[in-house]
Specification:
By secondary structure, the protein is mainly α. Helices cover 89% and strands 0% of the residues. Helix 1 (2-25) packs antiparallel against helix 2 (29-55). The chain is elongated, with a radius of gyration of 14 Å.
Length: 57
């Protein structure tokens, strides 16, 4: 359960930092949010894949 909270906190921090960058560099917020969500999904899927490989006998 702790790892889920870490993922949520990491996602919120990434969204916050990227939204700050959108104000500095003029990137649209929709694009930045989609980029953060895509990066988060890729990272979570890599972690799931690692966990599944560790459970193999």
């Amino acid at each position: 359960m702790r790892k889920i909270w870490y993922q949520i906190i990491n996602l919120l921090l990434a969204l916050t930092s990227l939204l700050i960058c959108t104000k500095l560099f003029g990137i649209s917020q929709e694009t930045s949010v989609l980029a953060v969500l895509l990066a988060w999904v890729l990272r979570v899927s890599a972690q799931i894949e690692t966990l599944l490989e560790e459970r193999k006998p």
